[in-house]
Amino acid sequence: MRQERTALVLGATGGIGGTVARRLKARGWHVRAMARQGRMLAACRNFEWVAGDAMNASDVARAANGAALIVHAVNPPGYRDWQRLVLPMLDNTIAAAKSEGARILLPGTVYNYGPDAFPEIDEASPQNPVTRKGKIREEMERRLEVSAGEGARALILRAGDFFGPRAGNNWFSQGLVKPGKPVTSITCPGTMGVGHQWAYLPDVAETMAALAERENELDDFATFHMNGHWDEDGNRMVEAIRRATGNPTLRAYPMPWPVMRLLSPVVPLFRELVEMRYLWRQPIRLRNDRLIDFLGAEPHTPLDRAVRETLEALGCLPPAGRATARTVRLAEGR
């Protein structure tokens, strides 16, 4: 029997999955999290943990028993085997959702879109991806839309590049700074003067939870976009990092794209990042009008606070880092 406030989270040991799971739990949901046996020990003990593999249809079906919501936030680690693994995992989630009459919640990306949809993207913009990963994401959403007419409702929330505590693999922690080390310089993937959109992971998770609370008001296939933090000239995030560290003279260097391209045949991560470089070469912004119309407001943490909390979680602020909070308070006008 389906429990209206039971959510199965696939990928709860990861950044987005874990953060969404905690937000749902805080709102009173019963959270069931599926993970491989070895990954459950260090994870949140407030969830109902079940052992399983997202590649195994029977594991997913068993874990989804009675769930009203399935958060599909599972991805192959390290960008490996995307083409082989991503779609079968989603198909298993769709099958389980059909069986339970559940809603699937998927974190969306801008990878689905090509230059014909730029610079401002809304939920009706055409999806003509130009990368391998983008084509897989487009196919994921196509399958969800088809399944929405077959008993598996879907909700997609699309946002900019993630950053934040426990955010996992992202441009902020893999590009701008080096986790576990004091910030001595900043690496910029984009070009100064070109806008870029960021999304603070706790805000994304709170938005997802708020939408899930009103699931009965949604279309069977519902999509929303977040505004997050818009860096209008590519320098706003750099300045926020400088303020968080209390060092206004931190040097910012361009990302070594030529070297990454040279090494991309042997380094899978570099290959994937280079393929996504087009997203940094021109301003691309998601419009959140539909989200505002539906929720009334978008959860939004001030940028300086969000950056400071991210750097602290990454171990990038020195022991005196918290003493620089005065700089941040002044910047936030407090």
Automatic annotation (TrEMBL):
Pfam families: NAD_binding_10. GO terms for cellular component: cytoplasm. It comes from the Bacteria. Residues 11-126 form the NAD(P)-binding domain. One of its GO terms (molecular function) is aldehyde dehydrogenase (NAD+) activity. PANTHER family: NAD(P)-BINDING DOMAIN-CONTAINING PROTEIN-RELATED, PROTEIN YEEZ. This is Nucleoside-diphosphate-sugar epimerase.
